[in-house]
Amino acid sequence: MKTFEYLVADNLDAAVAEYGAGKSMLKAGGIDLIDRLKERLELPDSIVSIGGIGALNYIKQDGDAIKIGCNTTLADIGRSDVLKKAFPGLHEACASAATPQIRERATLGGNICQRPRCWYFRNYDIHCLKKGGDTCFSADGENEYHAIFGDGPCHIVHPSNAAPSLVAVDALITVKNGKGERQIKARDFFVMPDKNLYAENVLGPDEIVTEVTIPKAPEKSAWLEIREKQSYDWPLVAAAVVRNGGAWQVCLGAVAPVPWYSEAASKVLGSSEMTAELAAKAGEAAVEGAKPMEHNAYKIQLVKVAVKRAALMAAGMEAIA
Amino acid sequence: MSEFWRPDDRMALENDHPRYDVTEKVTGRAKYSTDYYPDKLIWAAFIRCPYGVAKVTNADVEAAKKAPGVLDVQMDKMDGVYCGDHLGTICAESRQAIEDGIAALKLAFDIGEAKTDPLKQLPPREQWANFTPPTGGGPAGRGGGGGRRGGRGGRAASPEEIAAANAAATGADHMIEAVYETQVQTHCCLEPHNVLVDYRGDHAIAWGSSQGTFAYRDQLTRPLNLSADKVEFHCEYIGGGFGSKLGQTPEGVLASQMSVKFNRPCRVLLTRKEEQLDTGNRPGSIQYMKIGVSKDGTIAGGRMVAFGIAGAMSGGGGVRAVPRYKMTTPAVSSAMDVTLSAGGVRPMRAPGAPQYTYAYEMLMEELAQSIGMDSLEFRQKNDVDPVRQEMYKVGAELIGWKDRKASKDQKGPIKTGFGVAAGDWGNGGFGNATVTVNIYPDGRVEVLSGCQDIGQGFRTLVGDCVATTLDIPYTYLAVKVGVSNLPNGPGSGGSSTSRTVAPRAFLAAQQARDGILGLVAKEMKLPDASKLKIEKGMITGDIKPMAWTDACKLINGQLTYTTSDLPEGMGQNTQSQCVQFVKLNVDTETGVVRVEKIVALQEVGKPVNRNTIENQITGACIEGIGYALFEDRILNAATGVMNNANLEMYKCPGAVDIPEIVPVIWRSDPNSPVNAVGEPPSVPIAGALGCAIYNAIGVPVRKMPMTPRRVLAALGGEKGAVA
Could you tell me which chain A residue has the CA closest to the CA of B656? Predict the structure, then answer.
């Protein structure tokens, strides 16, 4: 990595001011950023760290809402009895991500803002579309881990484990800059590459994610990942299913450049009582519109199974019959 | 429990003593080469080609030399032929300065067409049954192989032999004609390849991570222009070596050159990316097999054709074919290597064997299936080795083979599969090694061998040889290994370290024992020491029992025994047989494989330390799980870039992926030589896993790694075959 000045913020206002000045990159746990620095994908002159701001690390109930500070680590969420009871889907997504060591460093804010793990994007020597080049190498290359939804032009999958559950439950993401703060619906927070090739969310260059609000804990929820390895691996496909205000919602992970809210699967489930047949139908519906590439058609089958099983798990039923 | 396996029959030097260096390792007191930071340390690195084939169009050497901290920059060539190829070298005051210097080079390339698809270099699939390699391309083999195949020269099979083999296969009751593919597996040593060379004019001291203390030292003598006695090489602790740290060490040459040039200690330490790109690999293979079988399970013979997938700078893609099953007409084999624009081959734990055994065992499974015979029964009918015949019976009990069911007879999406595979390893050659035992008046015993402990427990092994022979508490022992000014020992390759050094350690210990007993006899005015012995730290016999420490007080100065001799009976060539059983579950809706249990039966000859032997077997099984299910060097087809040159996307097994592993030290024989245990257990594991998956899902997955994608493809009818 290139040498840089390292600024440690001890409060949010100082961090917002420094970051807003536009010369620093932002670091919380650093899990994603340090990888990119080491690969020289980023060459900042300075970095401002918010990782030490304890006031941003909390899980609290506020009336019906649950609020989670951006510095809350995935391990903190994994240890939270509140979330385990109120939102088991999100709890499981965070508690099962990566490795114990990574979960102790990785923050919720960082998890939803992390850059894609696409092996072309992550390689300094490949000048891909997302880095200002003119080719998405996955289109004609090795795309077994890439997207089956969305029409490109970039075919990354969004890497966040937490985000699909947040989208499914209609969470709100609070962001702050020098002018104030705003709340963005999780479903509107992420952007497809045809809208913005160079970012995966709507954050302005001076904005920091400070909090995630779950307006009301879902009645039911589940998270299911299908992975090659059971230790330290990214999902091939993941599904978040919640029942929120009586209606089932389905959002997929690792299949599209954003957490992929499945309107079709959600519609099939509607507000019905769950059955094995209904769950299977939701799985079938979830792959509507999928356009796999040369090496990732297997993800179609995985989506069907992940949605079916996650729906059954959310309903408290046997997932594998 | 079977009469063939007695849990207590693991004696010999059985003692379960923990590793001698366990405290040093867990407390961090064990110093690895990167723990040494001498004053005025400088760093050096290779400037590498980032693409499979590329011509350098810009390299601003002058700018790089002016970068802060940069001492030296040199471009040696402008054409790279694999991703990671050395184009030049750089030396600087720090690692950061190296990186800044390489950035200042502003390297630019014309990217050429990389060779990334081995199939493009092979004849069409329909010609494989009659394939013979171009001149000198590979030997004909016999009997299910016939020795190592691939790129070794030798007589090619004649058209008549090939025609007869094809006829044997097609004329049988059933025939399996299949293509099995194995991927390239990279070395993933936890400790990267590294070396620190401190040249001091008339001598040099170096610290490195190596599988050969003395070979490494000898290699350093050339760039240092010093004789071997003037170079002291240290590798007391090593964070893993599986063959890649055996031979060529360009890092050592570079560090030496720069240390001489700047008269300062110089370190070369590879990054994880460099490790993945350029420290060698287990080559891939494409193996065509066409073998017939009769209804009663007799294997008829046929064809075996192996295409090895090597790197740009090397051959060595051959598979190690060992005939383990009887065939009425020996199979006729042919082999050829193809080269890719990619990092080259280096030895990796049982080179050539796991890739052949995966294909061979999958074939056996398919042959058994084709005639409706239980696959264990099929092996018992055809296996040529009597030891493995016994192992089948014991292993079947330990894994619960009786619970094995066909896929179609199991309900639900999760299917259980059982698999079995056989392996072997030759214990030939006992090389040169010297061991010294020093005994001091305070009772301390020093055991000296310059041979390296690559993590397998060599330090524990030589210590145990001496402690057990002397029968004294381990607390008296100090074992010093891995320094070139200690007595000579072999490199750790071919699973030869223990079998070469242990006999000398036993002999030196026996001489030391005789020496101390002789002193006691003299002191006690006995005519000789013939009736004296050491038991649990006490000298006993015709005397009032005397404590070891009291006996040692009789020593004037120190007692030293050094031997290079091979004791009688410890030098005969033997085979280490092994059989492994696997039980696993496959989710047929997702293709995900979860291994539940492995039983690994391993012949080891005279076992020295159970703990380290079982560690070796267990480690081989874990490595085999990675090989069979996860690991794969994935090249970008267009550029030859390795897409997954890290430990995030190059997938080694983690804790949750590791099943219950039951290592069984097979019928220990205290009168046998100490046999190989590093490599043999890594031979059958991928084959056993493949066979178990086949049993679980009812169709073979003929391509490794057997990922969910490939399992689903097999279930979907594609059967994982190429072409």
Answer: A231
d(CA B613, CA B461): 10
Per DSSP, B605 falls in state B
Neighbouring residues of B75: CB distance < 8 A, sequence distance ≥ 6: B47, B56, B59, B61, B87, B88
Report the distance separating Cα B234 and Cα B253, nearest Å.
16
Q: What is the dihedral of CA B434, B436, B437, B442, to 10 degrees?
A: -160
Provide the sign of the torsion angle of the four alpha carbons B711, B714, B715, B718, taken in this order: positive
Question: Cβ neighbours of residue B180 under 8 Å, at least 6 residues apart?
Answer: B285, B286, B287, B289, B358, B359, B362, B363, B702, B703
User: What percent of chain A shows pLDDT beyond 70?
Assistant: 100
Q: Is the pLDDT of residue B156 over 90?
A: no
Strand partners of residue B416 = B585
Look up residue B35 and give its DSSP letter. G
Above 60 in pLDDT, residue A83? yes
* Identity at B69, one-letter amino acid code: G
Residue B135's identity, in one-letter code, is T
ipTM, interface predicted TM-score of the complex: 0.97
The model's confidence at residue A89, banded by pLDDT at 50, 70 and 90, is very high
Q: Output the average pLDDT for chain B.
A: 92
Q: How far apart are CA B386 and CA B389, in angstroms?
A: 5
pLDDT in tens, A248-257: 999 999 999 9
What mean pLDDT is predicted for residues B497-503?
A: 93
B92 has pLDDT over 70? yes
> What is the average pLDDT score of chain A?
97
User: Rounded to whole angstroms, how far apart are CA atoms B487 and A127?
Assistant: 53
- Mean pLDDT across the stretch B26-45? 97
What is the pLDDT, as a whole number, of residue B134?
80
How far, CA to CA in Å, does B83 sit from each of A127, B53, B80, B311? 16, 8, 8, 10
With CB atoms and an 8 Å threshold, state whether B713 touches A298. yes
Q: How confident is the model over B446-473, as a mean pLDDT? A: 94
Q: Which residue in the set B634, B637, B651 is minimally distant from A228, CB to CB?
A: B651
The pLDDT confidence band at residue B248, using thresholds 50, 70 and 90, is: low
Q: How many CB pairs under 8 A join A and B?
A: 85
Q: What percent of chain B has pLDDT over 70?
A: 94
Compute the distance between CA of residue B107 and CA of residue B701 in angstroms, rounded to an integer: 43
Q: Choose among A123, A140, A236: nearest Cβ to B641.
A: A123
Nearest-CB residue to A320 (from B413, B653, B713) = B413
* Subunit contact A233:B651, Cβ cutoff 8 A: yes
Q: Note the pLDDT of residue B318.
A: 87
Token pair of B4 as six digits? 């063939």
Who among A1, A40, A236 is closest to B708 (CB)? A236
Among B residues 406-425, those touching chain A with beta carbons less than 8 Å apart: 412-414
Tokens 């990316």, located at residue = B273
- Tell me if residue A305 falls in helix, strand or coil: helix
What's the CA gap between A147 and A293, in Å, rounded? 8
Contact A50, A29 (CB under 8 A): no
Distance from CA of B589 to the nearest CA of A (A): 7
Cβ contacts of A119 on chain B, cutoff 8 Å:
634, 643-644, 649
What is the rounded distance in angstroms from the CA atom of residue B383 to the CA atom of residue B366?
A: 16
Q: Rounded to an integer, what distance in angstroms lies between the CA atom of residue A73 and that of residue A51? A: 10
Judge contact between A155 and A257, C-beta under 8 A: yes
Query: What's the pLDDT band for B135 if we cut at 50, 70, 90?
Result: low
Contacting residues for B337 by C-beta, under 8 A, at least 6 apart: B137, B150, B151, B283, B307, B308, B309, B310, B315, B316, B317, B318
The answer to whether the CB atoms of B653 and A229 lie below 8 A apart is yes
